[in-house]
Specification:
The complex is a heterodimer of chains A (about 270) and B (about 400). With about 270 residues, chain A is an alpha/beta fold. The termini of chain A are far apart. Chain A contains twelve helices and nine strands. Chain B is about 45% helix and about 15% strand. The chains are: A alpha/beta (about 270), B alpha/beta (about 400). The complex binds pyridoxal-5'-phosphate.
Chain lengths: ~270, ~400
C-alpha cells in the first residue's frame, strides 16, 4: 500500500469508530467457498448489506478452532482448488471497499516465513490478521512482522483465559480484541447470551482497543444482545457460511442475512438496553 | 526403577521444535496439566500408585527376550523388549495409566483420546474402566474398519467410540476431532494424547511416562550381556515407544538410535508416513512444530501406511530435534517389507508382532552388519490378522 493510505491498524480503528451502529458488524467469509469468484461476490454483498469490517477465512486442512460447518467449507474450497494466491486475490478485490482481516491458521503463515507472508498480505491492502492457533507465547515473530507492515495482529481471548493472562493479551492486541464468547469451536449455538456481559466486561477491562465478540453468534437477536452487553463489534461466521453452502445464490443469501444482522444492530433501534 | 524415571524437565521446546500452537481456549488447560504433572511426579504417593499399577495391573517389568532364531539367522544377538506382554498388548498402557491417574488427581471426570491402531484407545478405555471415568475415543472410519477387534474391545470396556469421517478418516483426523472436543469440554475433560506429539507439555509428559521401557531395557541388557547394545531400534508413528526406548540411551554416545517410519508405497511417492526420514521444511500439526508432511503452502497432506498406528503425517518434536542433532537417525520401511517381517517373525519366534512393530523388525532383518540389536517390540499383532490375511502381498 502507498504511504498516503491509512495503515491497516488505522482503518480498523476508523471502521469501529464510524460504524454508526450499536456495534460494528463483521461477517466471516470463507475465501474460495463455494468458489473464489463467488466468495468475492459474497464479500461485496456483505459490504452492500451494511458490514463494517470483513473477516476473510483461509481454507485449511486441519482447522482446530472450527466446528463442522466451517471445517467442511474449507475442505470443499480446497477441493475446488483454492490456494493462498487465490485467497489473497479475494482480499485484494474486497479491500478497497471494506477493511479485510484475514483469519489464517499458523502453518500457512509460517510456510513461506512469517515476514514474507505478512508482507504479501499487506500488498493486497488487507488490514489485519487473526491466527487462531497462535497464542501469546508463540506470537512474537508474527506480531513484529505485522507491526512493520501496518497490519493489525488481532489476538483471541476465551472465557477460560485467566485474568492476568487476559491483561497480557489485551496489552498485545492490535486493531481489536477477538473475544470468544463460548468455550468451544465455531458454530451456531442457542442461549448463551446470559454470559455475554461478563465475557465482554472482562475483555474490555484488559485492553484499549475495541472488543469484538464472536463464535456462536448467528441471529440478529444474539447480535443485539452482544451489543447490549457492551461489545464494540460482533462477528458472525458459521450461520453465513452455512447459507453460502446451502443456497443456489450464495451472495444473495448471505447479503440478506447480513442485512438482517445490520438492522438488528441499527442505532435507531432503541430497545432499552437493560 | 520407574519411580526414579519420572525426573525430567517439562520442556516446551526441543531446539526449534515443539511449542503450543493451539486455540487460546486450551492454553489454561495446558498450564494446569503442566503444573499437575510437575507436582505429581515429585509426589511419592502418586509415584507409588502409578508404579504399583504398572506392576500389578500392567505386568511390568516386561521381559527383555533374546530372540534365539532371529539371532541365529542374523549372526548377532537380537533382543526384543517385550511391550507386547503389557496388559492390553502394547506400550500404550504405560502412558494411559499415567495420564488417566493424573487426570483423576486433577478432578477430571471425563477422558477423551484419539486412536489409530486402536491400541491407545483400548489402553485408555481399560484404565478408565479401572478408575471409573467416562471415556470417549475418536477413531477414523478407515481405522474402525481395519482394526475392528480393538473397536469391539473398547466398547466392551465401556468406552464410546466416535468414528471420524473427515479427510482420510485415519489418525490425523481422529486427533483433530479429539482436540476439537477438548476445546469444547476443556473444563470437565482431560485429553489423553496417545503419542509423544501435541502441544507442550504433552511430548515431555508422554516421554516421561514411556521412558520406563528404555530404563528397564538398559538395565536388563547390561545384566544379560554385560554391555550395551550397538543399536536400539523402534518404530515411529508419533514416536512414543521410540522416545520411551531411546531416552535411557541418549547419553550412551556409542549406542546408535534408529527410528523406523512407515515407508508406505515408497518414500519417493506421496503415499507414506515418513516425515522424519524425508525431511524438508518443519511445520505445525496438532499444536507443535516438528517434521510434518505438508504441501508448499502449508496444507497438511494425508499420510499412508498399511499400519494404522504409523499412518500419520507428523512426528514428535523431540524426534525432529534428535534427527537434526544427529543423535538418532530415521529410516523408512515400505508396507510390503513390513508385511513380510510380520509373517517371518511369527514363524521364527512364535511372536506375532503388531504391524507397527513389524516395520522396526523389518529394518533389523535387512541389516547384515551390527553387533547387538535391541528392538522395542511395541505391541502384539492380533488386531492385525484380518488386515494381513486379507492383503494380497505374497509372504
Ligand atoms: C503397537 C504399536 N506400536 C507403535 C505404535 C506407534 O505409536 P508410537 O510411535 O507413538 O509408539 C502404535 C500406535 O498405535 C502401536 O499400536
Amino acid at each position: 500500500m502507498s504511504t498516503q493510505q491509512a495503515t491497516g491498524v488505522q482503518r480498523i480503528a476508523d471502521a469501529f469508530a464510524g460504524a454508526h451502529k450499536r456495534a460494528a458488524l463483521m461477517p466471516y467469509v470463507m475465501a474460495g467457498f463455494p468458489t473464489l469468484a463467488q466468495s468475492i461476490a459474497i464479500g461485496q454483498a456483505c459490504v452492500h448489506a451494511g458490514a463494517d469490517l470483513l473477516e476473510l477465512g483461509v481454507p485449511y486442512s486441519d482447522p482446530l478452532a472450527d466446528g463442522p460447518v466451517i471445517h467442511e467449507a474449507g475442505t470443499r474450497a480446497l477441493a475446488a482448488g483454492a490456494n493462498v494466491g487465490g485467497v489473497l486475490e479475494v482480499a485484494r478485490a474486497l479491500s478497497p471497499s471494506i477493511p479485510v482481516v484475514l483469519m489464517c491458521y499458523a502453518n500457512i503463515v509460517f510456510a513461506p516465513g512469517a515476514t514474507a507472508f505478512v508482507q504479501r498480505l499487506a500488498r493486497t491492502g488487507a488490514c489485519g490478521l487473526i491466527v487462531p492457533d497462535l497464542p501469546l507465547e508463540e506470537a512474537g515473530e508474527v506480531r513484529k512482522a505485522c507491526d512493520d507492515c501496518g497490519i493489525a495482529l488481532v489476538p483471541l481471548v476465551a472465557p477460560t483465559t485467566p485474568r492476568d493472562r487476559l491483561d497480557a493479551i489485551g496489552a498485545s492486541a492490535r486493531g481489536f480484541l477477538y473475544t470468544v464468547s463460548v468455550v468451544g469451536t465455531t458454530g451456531e449455538r442457542e442461549a448463551m447470551q446470559d454470559r455475554f456481559a461478563e465475557v465482554v466486561a472482562r475483555a474490555k477491562a484488559s485492553t484499549e482497543v475495541p472488543v469484538a465478540l464472536g463464535f456462536g453468534i448467528s441471529t440478529p437477536e444474539q447480535a443485539r444482545q452482544a451489543a447490549d452487553a457492551g461489545a464494540d463489534g460482533v462477528i458472525v461466521g458459521t450461520r453465513l457460511v452455512r447459507a453460502a453452502g446451502e443456497s443456489q445464490d450464495p451472495a444473495g443469501a448471505v447479503g440478506a442475512l447480513v442485512a438482517e444482522l445490520a438492522a438488528g444492530l441499527a442505532a435507531t433501534d432503541r430497545r432499552s438496553a437493560s | 526403577m520407574s519411580a526414579d524415571a519420572i525426573e525430567s524437565l517439562v520442556e516446551h521446546h526441543f531446539g526449534e521444535y515443539g511449542g503450543q500452537f493451539v486455540p487460546e481456549t486450551l492454553m489454561p488447560a495446558l498450564a494446569e496439566l503442566e503444573l499437575a504433572w510437575t507436582r505429581a511426579r515429585a509426589d511419592e504417593g502418586f509415584r507409588a500408585q502409578l508404579n504399583g499399577l504398572l506392576r500389578d495391573f500392567g505386568g511390568r517389568p516386561t521381559p527383555l527376550y533374546r530372540a534365539g532364531r532371529l539371532s541365529e539367522r542374523l549372526g548377532r544377538p537380537v533382543y526384543l523388549k517385550r511391550e507386547d506382554l503389557n496388559h492390553t498388548g502394547s506400550h500404550k498402557l504405560n502412558n494411559a495409566l499415567g495420564q488417566v491417574l493424573l487426570a483423576k488427581r486433577m478432578g477430571k471426570r471425563r477422558i477423551i483420546a484419539e486412536t489409530g491402531a486402536g491400541q491407545h484407545g483400548v489402553a485408555t478405555a481399560t484404565v478408565c474402566a479401572l478408575l471409573d471415568l467416562e471415556c470417549v475415543v475418536y477413531m477414523g472410519v478407515q481405522d474402525t474398519r481395519r482394526q475392528r477387534p480393538n473397536v469391539q474391545r473398547m466398547e466392551l470396556l465401556g468406552a464410546t467410540v466416535r468414528p471420524v469421517d473427515a479427510g482420510a478418516k485415519t489418525l490425523k483426523e481422529a486427533t483433530s476431532a479429539a482436540i476439537r472436543d477438548w476445546v469444547t469440554n476443556v473444563q470437565s475433560t482431560h485429553y489423553v494424547i496417545g503419542s509423544a506429539v501435541g502441544p507442550a507439555p504433552y511430548p515431555s509428559l508422554v516421554r516421561d511416562l514411556q521412558r520406563v521401557i528404555g530404563d528397564e531395557a538398559r538395565a536388563q541388557i547390561l545384566q544379560a550381556e554385560g554391555r550395551l547394545p550397538a543399536r536400539v531400534v523402534a518404530c515411529v508413528g508419533g514416536g512414543s515407544n521410540a522416545i520411551g526406548t531411546f531416552t535411557a540411551f541418549l547419553d550412551d554416545e556409542h549406542v546408535e538410535l534408529v527410528g523406523v517410519e512407515a515407508g508406505g508405497e515408497g518414500i519417493d511417492t506421496a503415499r507414506h508416513g515418513a516425515p522424519l526420514t524425508v525431511g524438508g521444511r518443519a511445520g505445525i500439526l496438532h499444536g507443535s512444530r516438528s517434521a510434518v508432511m505438508q504441501d508448499e503452502e502449508g496444507q497438511i497432506v494425508q499420510a499412508h501406511s498399511i499400519s494404522a498406528g504409523l499412518d500419520y503425517p507428523g512426528a514428535g518434536p523431540q524426534h525432529a530435534f534428535l534427527r537434526d542433532s544427529g543423535r538418532a537417525h530415521y529410516v523408512a520401511v515400505p508396507d510390503e517389507q513390513a508385511l513380510r517381517a510380520f509373517k517371518e517373525v511369527a514363524r521364527l519366534e512364535g511372536i506375532i508382532p503388531a504391524l507397527e512393530t513389524a516395520h522396526a523388525l523389518a529394518w533389523v532383518l535387512e541389516q547384515d552388519d551390527g553387533e547387538l540389536d535391541l528392538i522395542c517390540l511395541s505391541g502384539r499383532g492380533d488386531k492385525d490378522l484380518a488386515e494381513v490375511l486379507g492383503s494380497h502381498t505374497a509372504p
